[in-house]
Sequence to fold (108 residues):
Amino acid sequence: MKNKLAIAVICLLMTFPTVASAERQCVTNEGYFGAIAEADFDRLSKFLAQKDTVAAATLITQKRAFPMKKGVAVLVEDTKIFSGKVQLRIPGNPNTFWTNLEAIKCTE
Fold:
């Protein structure tokens, strides 16, 4: 019985690399902003829509939001299609951030 369990666990573990490699590869686009908390991203988006650059700059100065660099590899953690937001994570980093769906380009 223990041998069957060990074989099952080994077979299961062998499937993980194929599952991970099937995940979509995404990179960031230039000209977008991200925020650590979803609420901060919503506020930043509102400030930018209102052209309130002082309020937007304050969030950036407080390190609650940041301009995104082009070409950074990211993993999609959550997507909110109707609001156009996506939660991302950089591979190897457990922390996530929020941005616009348009801020990333993904391939299959």
In short: The radius of gyration is 19 Å.
